[in-house]
Amino acid sequence: MKTVIAGAHGKIARELTRHLVHQGHEVVGLIRNPEHNKDIESDGGTPEVVDLESSSADELAKVLTGADAVVFAAGAGPGSSAERKDTVDRGASVLLADAAEIAGVKRFVQISSMGADSVRDGQRPDGLDDIFYAYLQAKLAAEEDLVARSSFSWTIVRPGGLTDDPATGRVRLTSKTGQGSVPRKDVAAVIAALLETKLGDRQVLELISGEEAIPDALASINR
Questions:
Q1: In the predicted structure, residue 123 carries a pLDDT above the cut 70
Q2: pTM over 0.85
Q3: Would you list the DSSP string of the chain?
Q4: In the list 17, 52, 126, 166, which could disulfide-bond 45, CB 3.0-4.6 Å?
């Protein structure tokens, strides 16, 4: 399996690259900063320098040609403006989906955020600052764009609060989990399993730490 990961230098993406490569899969990592090439290579991936805020869908499609799956793991990151939340967390995901359609990629996994649906129809939860509100709006818009597409099998994963704790291998994965946190390593393992098993077709799944082993949690989503 050949997978292209957008935002490949992020913590979840690097864990995912290492996991997939360990399982014998090919990974191409899209990065903006060429100084990150060596990190992607050390993870076992092949780096491709692409600016998702300025590239065209046709240009990006050339990089995706021959891929079995794409993963959107990019984000504007802490300290970025509301404008960049839109251009990266929404715009770059839409661009990747456009390019995937052109290239004929059949699988798309999007890393979104717990709470994205809380800002639907302009709602704004109490206490939400302007930047995080813009972030959730961008994530929701990216989800809605993906849901409207029928040209590939997609899965949207909304992790809870992310931690750098060791992996537990035990999660709760369902349409509504309630609040909670989850190690980034477990998020990467779940996404790798979604790619390998092809489960979760056209599903929006929340993810936090739980009691089920990851294979069991994945099996339960299709019951």
A1: yes
A2: yes
A3: -EEEEETTTSHHHHHHHHHHHHTT-EEEEEES-GGGHHHHHHHT-EEEE--TTT--HHHHHHHHTT-SEEEE-----TT--HHHIIIIIIHHHHHHHHHHHHHT--EEEEE--TTGGGGGGG---TT--HHHHHHHHHHHHHHHHHHT--SSEEEEEEE-EEE-PPP-SEEEEES---S-EEEHHHHHHHHHHHHHH---TTEEEEEEE-SEEHHHHHHHHT-
A4: 17
